[in-house]
Amino acid sequence: MMDLQEFLADNYRVELSAFHTILDGIPAESFATPRLGHSPAWHALHIADWLRLTVLGDKTPTYHYLGWEDTAWIGGLGTQPAPLNEDAAKADILARLNTVGAQAVAYLQNATDAEMSGVTFSPSAPNGERPRLAAVGLHLRHVAYHRGQVVLGQKA
Predict the structure, then answer these.
(1) Do residues 18 and 10 touch, judged by C-beta distance below 8 A?
(2) Which distant-in-sequence residues (6+ apart) come within 8 Å of 79 by Cβ?
(3) What SUPFAM superfamilies does UniProt report for this protein, alphabetically (predicted)?
(4) Cβ neighbours of residue 122 under 8 Å, at least 6 residues apart?
(5) Residue 81 CA to chain centroid, in angstroms?
(6) Which CATH architecture has domain 4-68+78-155?
(7) CA nearest to 147, candidates 19, 11, 17, 13
(8) C-alpha angle 117/119/124, rounded to 5°?
(9) Is the dihedral of CA 151, 16, 145, 80 positive or negative?
(10) Measured in whole angstroms, how far is the alpha carbon of residue 106 from the centre of its chain?
(11) φ/ψ (deg, to 5) at 35
């Protein structure tokens, strides 16, 4: 029987692979072109940033693609340059997404029961944190949402 950690890791693996497949199908010359609000590059960097924050609990102040940069709760999370910007090469952005995604999958697969039953920093939550399982579940759906946004953008 599959345990919770393997279930979560497997679902993230599948969803991130589907997201990568959609992004990979976009021509490099239009990867940074906004469609319906944001470019495919932005969506990839956005998910990489949220993986770092929600799953990995990384508070390194290099966030610039959370989508909430103009809100007070972002605080010191964006005080240093982003690892990559939207105008970076498509291959570099996809490599970043894949690297952070693999780190998130590995974390989920190896997390202890105590880690899974704990809370995690969630600046968009009213009290600034969420139960870890709720947070990773919300984020998994968030990846699927942005996959859909990229698909819709290509149809516009």
Answers:
(1) no
(2) 61
(3) DinB/YfiT-like putative metalloenzymes
(4) 54, 128, 129, 130, 135
(5) 18
(6) Up-down Bundle (1.20)
(7) 19
(8) 140
(9) negative
(10) 15
(11) -135, 125
* 40-50 and 90-110 helices, crossing angle to 10°: 30
Domain boundary assignment for the chain: 4-68+78-155
pLDDT of 122? 82
- Quick one: which of 118, 122, 95 has its CA closest to 107? 118
pLDDT for res 15? 98
* Structure tokens given for 55: 């799953």
Identify the pLDDT of residue 99: 98
Measuring CA to CA, which residue among 103, 105, 89, 76 is closest to residue 44?
Answer: 89
Axis-axis angle for helices 40-50, 132-155 (nearest 10) = 180
Task: Determine if the pTM surpasses 0.70.
Answer: yes
* Token duo for residue 65: 């693609």
pLDDT < 50 positions in the chain: none
Using CA atoms in the order 55, 72, 127, 141, what is the torsion angle rounded to 10 degrees? -40
> Amino acid identity, residue 63?
Y
| pLDDT for the residue 120 | 87
C-alpha 111/C-alpha 93 separation (Å) is 27
